[in-house]
Hints:
- With 135 residues, the protein is an all-alpha fold.
- The chain folds into two domains: 2-94, 434 Repressor (Amino-terminal Domain); 96-135.
- It contains eight helices and no strands.
- It is elongated.
Amino acid sequence: MFYKLFAIIQIICNKNVSKMIFFQQNLYYLRSKKKMTLAVIANELGFSASQWSNYEQGLSFPKFLDLIKIARYFELTETTLIHTDIQSKSIEITEQSEKDKESIILLQNKIIQMQEEKIKELQLDLDNLKNTKAK
């Protein structure tokens, strides 16, 4: 879905937008900087190792809420994670205490849960509207 959006933008703007995407190399760099294996970082963030590997290889792109979770984990904005060459810009990644990480992850998970509940609620409202219109 994300790449489809960029393909549309690329056509409209007649530019090669993909050159501005640093997401996959940033994930690899950030994981390497923390000296973490695929399995460890994937597990810590709630992904499978193959899913994380696909992100690093550019074979897939995370859902929006997962992108937020990844960016927050590395204490970056989503825009920075996607559009900035972090390694060449030498953006400093701060170390967090384990307690801070756990607190952040718990808060992120709660926010994601609330957003998912709201999405379900909106979907039900939409379905009700469709059913009402069909009658």
